[in-house]
Design a protein that fits this description.
This protein is mainly α. It folds into three domains: 77 residues; 124 residues, hpI Integrase, Chain A, CATH 1.10.443.10; 62 residues, no CATH class. It is built from 14 helices and three strands. β1 and β2 form a beta hairpin. α5 crosses α10 and α11 runs antiparallel to α12.
């Protein structure tokens, strides 16, 4: 099994360069990844270079421009970009550097989005569409990699980044496990494969085309590196259309990440059908998904008409007499 990879080198060239490196390295020294912060600070650094900032004292006059929302930027990205710079400026004040640090934070974007939970019939149609990827000269491995990527997303409930970052040494076919390193929140975990999915993994890894390709990634792209998440999203939209599943447009879903939501709901539904105690099983699901706590897991458990019936019966058997039935005509 491989160890965690080192962080990519930091690229800072503005008058803030030394401070930005110290800021990121200090946080990483105590175990934080700060990968997102590094990306946005590199963007700010480039912004300063492109704006011909020669002295730190010049920054306040350009800060208002940086804070403005960019075309096609989501509310979440806009908020994160400004929040990271606000924290960095607070850090600079420890060095008595006069930069804006008291500007008001942007309001947090609304995160009340309700995920789309696929029915089991829709999952079958979606995965069937994924298996019909055709070979082309640009990507001859697509008929092998793409179908298994989507089956892994649903059957293991992984984030798309976790699947695409899998290297060969992360996949233990003897034990039937996937090693997920440096996931969200810096967590590591082992994810077991079902017998049917393990069989697909064995057939895939034994394929002569995959073995001859020689990439370090288990699901290599055409250049031998890893697929980009946006590539998988493009495929996802294609499979939705072929499966006859409508898409509501940007921000309305279904989203590729909703396969993970669906995995969680279907897992809970399966346990309810088996008569298992859902309160006892919930921590197991939380660890499997790589969540920090149960509150994170509960957000995934959105009920659909398909799964609600069995869960309602499960709860009813244990708690049906707690509250008396109220008939409509009595109200």
């Amino acid at each position: 099994m491989r160890k965690k990879t080192d962080f990519p080198p930091l690229c800072f060239n503005s008058p803030f360069a030394d401070f930005a490196r110290d800021y990121i390295e200090q946080h990483r020294a105590v175990g934080k990844k700060y990968s997102v912060d590094a990306v946005y600070l590199e963007q700010f650094d480039k912004y300063c270079v492109d704006s011909n900032i020669a002295y730190i004292s010049q920054v306040p006059e350009l800060f208002d421009k940086w804070r403005q929302k960019r075309p096609h930027e989501t509310d979440t990205s806009h908020n994160i970009r400004n929040r990271i710079l606000r924290k960095f400026f607070k850090f600079l004040h420890n060095y008595d550097i006069a930069v804006p640090s008291t500007f008001h934070p942007l309001p947090r974007p609304d995160k009340s989005f309700v995920p789309y939970i696929f029915t089991r019939d829709e999952i079958v149609k979606l995965l069937t569409a994924a298996t019909k990827v055709k070979r082309n000269d640009h990507n001859p491995l697509a008929p092998l990699t793409i179908p298994l990527i989507f089956k892994t997303l649903y059957c293991c409930g992984l984030r798309v980044s976790e699947v695409l970052q899998l290297r060969n040494e992360d996949v233990d076919l003897q034990r039937g496990t996937l090693q997920i390193l440096d996931s969200k929140g810096g967590k590591d975990r082992l994810v077991p494969l079902s017998e049917s999915l393990l069989q697909l993994f064995l057939e895939y890894s034994a394929n002569e085309k995959i073995r001859a390709f020689g990439s370090e990634y288990f699901f290599p792209s055409v250049d031998g590196g890893r697929y980009a998440s946006c590539t998988m999203y493009g495929r996802f939209r294609e499979f939705l259309w072929k499966a006859g599943i409508p898409h509501g447009g940007r921000g309305s879903g279904p989203r590729l990440h909703d396969l993970r939501h669906t995995f969680a709901v279907h897992t809970l539904d399966n346990w309810a059908r088996q008569g298992k105690d859902l309160y006892v099983c919930l921590p197991i699901l939380s660890v499997y998904l790589g969540h920090k706590n149960l509150l994170s897991t509960q957000k995934y458990l959105r009920l659909t008409p398909e799964s609600y019936h069995s869960m309602l019966n499960s709860y009813g058997e244990h708690f049906g007499d707690v509250f008396p039935e109220v008939r409509y005509e009595e109200v």
